[in-house]
Amino acid sequence: MERDRYKVLMVGPDRSVHGGISGVVNNYYEAGLDRRIDLRYIGTMVEGTKWKKLARAGMAYIRFLVNLPRYDIVHVNMASDMSYYRKAVFVWTAKAFGKKLVIHQHGGNFPDFYDKEIGNAGRGRVKETLSKGDAFLVLGTAWKDFFGEIIGRDKITVLPDAIQLPARVEKRCGVHKILFLGRICREKGIGELLSVMPELLRRYPDVRLYLGGIWEDVKLREQMLSLGDCVTELGWVGGDVKQKYLRECDIFVMPSYFEGQSVSILEAMAYNCGIVASDTGGIPDMIEDEKTGLLVRPRDEKALEKGILRLLDDPGLCRMLGENARQKAEAEFSMEYHIERLLEIYEAVGGAGNGGRTGS
Description:
Layout: E1 5-12, H1 20-30, H2 33-36, E2 38-43, H3 50-67, E3 73-78, H4 82-96, E4 100-105, H5 110-117, H6 120-130, E5 135-138, H7 141-151, E6 156-158, E7 177-181, H8 190-203, E8 208-212, H9 218-225, E9 231-235, H10 239-248, E10 251-254, H11 263-270, E11 274-278, H12 283-286, E12 294-296, H13 301-313, H14 315-332, H15 335-350, E13 357-358
Parallel strand pairs: 1-2, 1-3, 3-4, 4-5, 5-6, 7-8, 7-10, 8-9, 10-11, 11-12
Antiparallel strand pairs: 1-13
Helix pairs in contact: 8-13, 11-14, 13-14
C-alpha cells in the first residue's frame, strides 16, 4: 500500500509566464512534487493584451470551480497589485467551499501597494482576505515582520524559495563578466546598472555586462544601446543557455528597488558567483554582507559602482564570496529541503483525519 497523498489544487500565473512565481512552480515540477502529491495546477494569468489576460482569468476560474470539489487543500500563489485582486477571488471561493487554504505571498512590492495604493477600506479588505489562510507563507524574515503587522504572526511561516542545486563548478574569477537575470525594468535597478558601466569600462576595458530578461522599458534599452558592445542582451534565457552564463560569469548583480526573494540570486549562489545585490526585502536572508555577497543600498548608483568595483579589483574576494554562497545554498535553499517543509505545512493545515490526504 502506497502512503496516502495530499490532494492540492494550486493556482498562480501560467507556467509559461516570465517571472519569479512561474519559476518557483516550474521548479516544483522539475523536483517531482507532482509525483509525491495529487497536484493540479491552474494558471490564472498569461502574458499579452488586457483582453487575453481577462479571458485567461475567466477560464481559470471556471476550471477552478470544476476541479475544486475533489481537492482538499488550495494553494494560492499571490503577489501584489493585480495579482492580489485576481487571487483574492480564489481565496474567498476556496473558503466558501470549506477548503483548507495556503496563501503563498511572493510580492516584493506589497508594502507600496498596501501603504500607498489603497485606502483604509482597501487595507481592511486585504486584511480580511489574507487572514483567511490556514497557513500564510512568506519568503523571508522581513516579510514575516511586515505581514505580521497585518494578520498576526501566528499563521505566518517563512519558506524561502529554493532551487535544484547543480553539480559544483570550478569558477574562474577575474574574467570581468557581469550577469543580470530578471525583468529588465527600472524597478530592478537597471538604470543604475547601465549608468555605472562607463566608469567600470574606464577602469577595466575588458568588462562585459550580460542582460538576460525581457525588456519592459524602451528608454532603458536606448541607454543600453548607447554603451556599445560592452553590454550584450541575451533575451529571456533558460536551461543550458542560462547555465552557460552562470558558469562563465564571475559576478552577478541584482540592484532591485524591492524584492520578495530572487530565484536568480539563488541560482548565482549555486554557481559560485560573486554577488552584488540590494539590501531590500528577502535578499538579506540570502546574502550576508561581506560573507556570501555584498549588499548595497537600493537606488544608490555610487554604492552599486563601489560594490562591483570591489569584486573586479579583488578576484580573491570574489572567489571567497562565491564559495560561501554555494555553501549557504546547499545548507538552506535546496529544493529537497523546501519540498519537505512544504509537505509539513500541508500536513499541518489538512493532515490525515482532516481530509487532507486520499488513499492511492
